Amino acid sequence: MNNNTTNNPKEKRDNENRVRESGSANKTVANDTVSTGKAGGTIAGSAGKTGGINELLGKIGLGPLSLLAFVLLGLAPLFIDDRFIIHLMISGMIFGTLAMGFDFTVGYINIVNFGYAAIMGVGAYSSALTVSRLGMSPWLGMAIGGVMAAIMGFLIGVVTLRLRGLFAAVMAWFVGLTLLAMTANLVDLTRGWLGLRVRPLFATPDRIPYFYTIFVITVVSYIILYRLTQGKMGMAFKAIGQNQEAAHSVGVNSTKYKIINFTISCALAGVVGGFYGHFVGILTPDVMHTRETVEVLALAYIGGRGSIWGGLLAAFIIIPIFEYLRPLMAMRFVIYGLLLMLVMILYPGGLSQFFAFIKAQIFNRSSKVEERA
Amino acid sequence: MILKTENVVKRFGGLVAVDHVSLGVNEGDIFGIIGPNGAGKTTLINVITGFYQLDGGSVEFKGKDITGFKPSRLCHMGMVRTFQIVNPFPDMTVLENVKVGSLFGNEDSKEDPEEKAERMLDFIGFELPRKTLAAHLNSNQLKYLELARALATDCDVLIMDELAAGLTPGELPDLCNLIRKIRDTGVTVIIIEHVMKLIMEVCERIAVLHYGEKIAEGSKDDVANDARVIEAYLGEEYAV
């Protein structure tokens, strides 16, 4: 009986070979076109040497442009002496990193995690409480925040397993609301709406150490998320997000990949939440409110779903605008709402699609020039 | 027998969509399942491939009871299906669509997933633009795409749900040849179909469903001459 159930690998290999033979004639043709396409690519990319560097960067998940952007961002405090601008950049990175983590779920497995801010709050409160109650270092606190949030993400993954799209989103939202209510009502632990004082991460009031902390978190998150979405796991996420039934039918274990996705994206929110608490110095249940999720969602959508970096860029554009135009702050969510509607109706690809469009234009022009030469 | 169902029952509320169906498919066969609209063919497939939970009976695959197994697990065991209403990954290219099949269908495969995807697209012999998004394909192209994606999982049993629907009669001979070619690589093929010409052309054994019940099973001549089958298809007055 058992012998029958296990596939005979040798037999399978034979089958493969047979199919391969019958397809081989056509295949050489296909190979040719592929190789010529590659040759064209290297010519366009000027020289072989830059190709090598690009490859190396590609391995760690950075393109030349993203590397340049991160280097410029990293050097910014050397040139900018304005405390306010540094503060803005920290806010941008906090929200941008959250938007990246959010996009990891919505842009790939296509589930809107409406409880995302609550998960971030779990990380923030866990970190703050381990530091104040157990006297641990804030660095360890942030790690614990990440772990707690990851556990919550795992649980959300489990409860939304059998649900898809909107239903999963609503379920995640309920989990978020429950967490918010618990935080507000467990007054003995969290001090509820009175607010919880959080020990700062650094003894100095200087903003620069905070800047570099969140900078490292942002860059590392970007690299991790980007790399995960490029590989086999990314294929599974996309397949589940685009058509769960089809994904199932060709062997994608959606249970496993959904849970992995939620766990990673929530762990990130937890770490950022931990940082947020130690940076701001006070936590109220407000940070877990759905409207905070909506803010992150808006950034992710405006940045372009499925791009990872789009949300980060959007945060750097939109958050300073609000900070500089204070009167707009009160109307923030009205503006977010309008922007979201505009993006979703007129340009669903967001900033990342716009960027791809520009890139295609430039590339086309350069290849035309080459042809003439 | 590579695939066997035993008294399979599936109900939707008061409606019995599949009513105690037992059938067996021999390894290496091209097996047809036919029946009028609403006979329960697709429901039966959904039950066999784990998309529906069954309400009674059991399914056996390669001698193992697979009742209640998930579709992804069955795929790893070597059973894969295509859908009557095409189910592509719309925002992936043709090649990526097939690559999902080769990446996840047989994770022990030594072959490079992309190469295997290319090979399968060549194998089906239907020209598909590799770099085009699936969202931009027409329904015929999508059907072939699904077939390539299913084959990329290294299946032992391939279940095709109404692949020929929507094809022109001129395209049928090619499809018949393709089905035979698939079988010749050692894959057992199960076809659910309305297009009788295709069924009669390629199938070695046929089962007929009517109102959820199996009313006949056997070689194509047996089935074509079966009084109950003629009755089901043409109406009582034509039955001899």
What does the main sheet of chain B amount to? 6 strands, mixed
Low-confidence stretches of chain A: 1-48
- From the N-terminal CA to the C-terminal CA of chain A, the straight-line distance is 69 Å
Total of DSSP H or I helical runs spanning 4+ residues of chain B:
9
Tell how many strands the DSSP assignment of chain B holds: 10
Fraction in helix of chain B: 25-40%
Integer average pLDDT of chain B: 88
Q: Which protein chains make the most extensive interface, counting residues with beta carbons within 8 Å of the other chain's beta carbons?
A: A-B, 37 and 54 residues
Instruction: List the uncertain runs of chain B.
Output: none
- As laid out across the biggest beta sheet of chain A, the strand order is 1-2
Oligomer: heterodimer
Strand residue percentage of chain B: 25-35%
Would you give the CATH topology of the domain at 1-77 and 188-240 in chain B?
Answer: Rossmann fold
Name of the CATH superfamily of the domain at 1-77 and 188-240 in chain B: P-loop containing nucleotide triphosphate hydrolases
Distance between the termini of chain B: 34 Å
Provide the CATH topology of chain A.
ABC transporter involved in vitamin B12 uptake, BtuC
Please state roughly what percent of the residues of chain A sit in beta strands, choosing from under 5%, 5-15%, 15-25%, 25-35%, 35-45% or over 45%: under 5%
What is the number of domains of chain A? 1
* Level-1 CATH class name of the domain at 1-77 and 188-240 in chain B: Alpha Beta
Shape of chain A: globular
Structure overview:
The complex is a heterodimer of chains A (373) and B (240). Chain A has one domain (65-364): ABC transporter involved in vitamin B12 uptake, BtuC (Orthogonal Bundle), CATH 1.10.3470. Chain A has 18 helices and two strands. Chain A has helices spanning 2-5, 9-44, 48-60, 64-79, 83-109, 116-134, 138-159, 165-185, 187-190, 208-230, 232-242, 244-249, 254-280, 290-303, 309-324, 326-329, 332-346, 350-372, and strands at 196-197, 282-283. Chain A has a two-stranded antiparallel sheet with strand order 1-2. In chain A, α6 (116-134) runs antiparallel to α7 and α10 (208-230) crosses α11. Chain A starts with a helix and ends with a helix. Residues 1-48 of chain A have low confidence and may be disordered. In chain B, strands 6-7-8-3-9-10 form a six-stranded mixed sheet, with helices on both faces. Chain B has a four-stranded antiparallel sheet with strand order 2-1-4-5, covered by helices on one side. The relative contact order of chain B is 0.18. Chain B is globular and about 50 Å long. Chain B has a domain at 1-77 and 188-240: P-loop containing nucleotide triphosphate hydrolases (Rossmann fold). With 240 residues, chain B is of the alpha/beta class. The chains are: A mainly alpha (373), B alpha/beta (240).
